[in-house]
Amino acid sequence: HRIMTGAPLPDGADAVVPVELTASDSGEGRFATARLLATPEIRFTAPIPVGKNIRAAGSDIVAGEVAIRAGTRLRAPQLGLLAAIGVTMVDVWRRQRVVVLSTGSELVTPGQSLRHGQIYESNSPMLAAAATEAGASAQSVHFVPDDVDGFLARIAEIAGDADLIITSGGVSAGAFEVVKDALTATGGVEFVKVAMQPGMPQGCGHVIDPSGRAVPIITLPGNPVSSLVSFEVFIRPPLRKAMGLAPNREEVHARLLDPINSPDGKRQFLRGVLGQSLGGWIVEPIGPPSSHHLRYLAGANTLIDIAADVTSLPDGWIVRAMRLD
Description:
6-stranded mixed β-sheet; elongated
């Protein structure tokens, strides 16, 4: 019997022979199935084991077998398998909706001309990108000037569309810090100084949206390196866990290529370039530790994690490195 790929087997057949392994008296090959003997005019040019070229029902996955385990991120192969077994609906963790808001009267949208005392606003697109890379659905909204009423009005506008609000700036120890002043007055947010560098001033709590829902809010420092390192340390792990994703970045032990100094009593996260040698992982610290040197963070693929009780390490020392790539 002639048969095409994907067709059901005829009754009694238990093997399929590719057309290129057949020959006939006319010299033309064709697909054939066989149980004991081929039809008289067909010759097979190779042995025909029983079950050859047959895909048995259930050979991919059988009833009762786990198709996709809970916690698996659904990509093209997983969606294909679900369709192949006839599943049209599964329960999933949805992406968390993250809204990022920067504050500062000195901020200007990139692309505009800068005046004296102004800087381009970089934190909100940077943090929105970090949240997106973490798996969330993120948006940055237009920054607000240093005005308490304006800030609270903006929070009220965006809270209803957010599972998490992230702000940057306005939480330090200045005479007027708009985020700290506004949220201290409303309550629900605690502001602390964390023993780490960069990223000492932090705030965490909740705000109430117009419907009365409590929306988590995390207030990050305004210096860009402090802001992004704080996101990596405090926000990324729980954000990913809330979506059923592996929370932590990979950490490796690497050999320092240069000596380093670290402030006593503060856990420091240094920017570094991680690589491999015949002896294993190596890491080169890059740039000064100052929290405004964003270019060195942009050139880094790791954060070197230095414990709070360490003040200096020589080159060749083994350190922990959090991979950012």
